[in-house]
Amino acid sequence: MRSMTSNAPAEWAELPPLRWGLVGAGGIARSLTLSLAAVPGDVVAVCARNPERTAAFAEAHGIPTPLTDLDEMLADDSIDIVYVATPHSVHEEPVVAALEAGKSVLCEKPLSHGLTSTLRCIDAARASSSTFMEAMWTRFLPAWRAAESWIEAGDIGEVRTLTASMGFPAPTDPTHRLMDPALAGGALLDIGVYVLALTQRILGGDPEDVQVLWEPTATGVDGQASIGMRWADGRMANLSLSLVSDMEGTAVVSGTEGAVAVPSFHRGEEVHLTRRREVIRTERFPHLVNGLEHQVAAITAAVADGAQEVAGMTWADSIEVAALSQRIRDRMGLRYPFDPPT
């Protein structure tokens, strides 16, 4: 087991050192591997389609077993948990296979490309005895835990409005995963899941009305979207997504007596409490590594406890977020080549 960073919470040192297998050898798999500097555990195998890229990834991160055969990795009884880090268009197959093989699974967000596929993943988890969670890492950040505690304490009064944006100029190469319809590209499934998970957490997943304005890219996926939601009691959310614009990325939860603001909310390293547009309190929570370490600690603890779900991101949460995403995509009329015929 690699040595842990010295600033990790003391209780993390008591967690069992899980042996991880990675499915996928891209940037997010690298981030997960690096986050284990703060949490007990080691990546012992990585599986991806391209043998040269997989071998290079393994060598760069000291992973002893590079593979291109998923069945071979899942047959390894020494692996405790699998992290699915493939494009979200192909999450379902490795998730279900890993659960059926008796592995615990952390699946990169979104859990899948649509509600029906998401439900199949959850059904596989229910049929297993393993721990399973969608990797909504923002949910576990200390900044958001602080923000939620202020909201629950009534520091902003009654919550009435949520606004959030996230966007960056994405590569325009039509074969890039963000632009390719065959890979379920577009803003909604890549970055929209962050704002939808936040909305579901704060306001709930059952808005009475959802309105969508959107603009497609040259490949037909959603390049920009503005989403408005209203709940039956009058609470509202205003969300903006873009693969064209460099957005500030602040999330603001506003109430009758104040507001909580989290700059760069999906990374969440600081949180502000405001009253009448004046900041009256600020707390900062620098990442120990890259922020993913908090979700890794949470699922490691769940595995150690024999829990199938993780309280910070339950299966019901994943279903509600997927249902919201599907509702928005249906409003857009956006379909992918692999979608079943209507």
Number of DSSP-assigned strands: 14
Radius of gyration: 20 Å
CATH topology heading of the largest domain: Dihydrodipicolinate Reductase, domain 2
Q: What form results from the Cα inertia axes?
A: globular
Strand order of the largest sheet: 8-9-10-7-11-12-13-14
Query: From the 3D coordinates, which CATH architecture of the largest domain would you assign?
Result: 2-Layer Sandwich
Label the structural class: alpha/beta
H/E element order: EHEHEHEHEHEHEHEEEEEEEHH
Mean pLDDT: 96
Proportion of residues in helical segments: 25-40%
Uncertain segments: none
Name the CATH superfamily classification of the largest domain.
Dihydrodipicolinate Reductase, domain 2
Number of helices: 9
**CATH class descriptor name of the largest domain:** Alpha Beta
> Distance N terminus to C terminus?
50 Å
Domain GFO/IDH/MocA-like oxidoreductase: 144-260
Pfam families: GFO_IDH_MocA, GFO_IDH_MocA_C3
Organism: Euzebya pacifica
Domain Gfo/Idh/MocA-like oxidoreductase N-terminal: 18-133
Kindly list the characteristics that best describe this protein.
2 domains, six-stranded parallel sheet, eight-stranded mixed sheet, Dihydrodipicolinate Reductase, domain 2, Rossmann fold, alpha/beta
Characterization of this structure:
- The protein has 342 residues and is of the alpha/beta class.
- It folds into two domains: 10-138 and 292-311, NAD(P)-binding Rossmann-like Domain (Rossmann fold, 3-Layer(aba) Sandwich), CATH 3.40.50; 142-284 and 321-332, Dihydrodipicolinate Reductase, domain 2, CATH 3.30.360.10.
- Helix content is 31%, strand content 25%.
- The strands form two sheets. It has an eight-stranded mixed β-sheet, covered by helices on one side. A six-stranded parallel β-sheet has the order 3-2-1-4-5-6, with helices on both faces.
- Helix 4 (92-100) packs parallel to helix 5, helix 5 (115-127) runs antiparallel to helix 9 (315-332) and helix 7 (187-203) packs across helix 9 (315-332).
- It is globular.
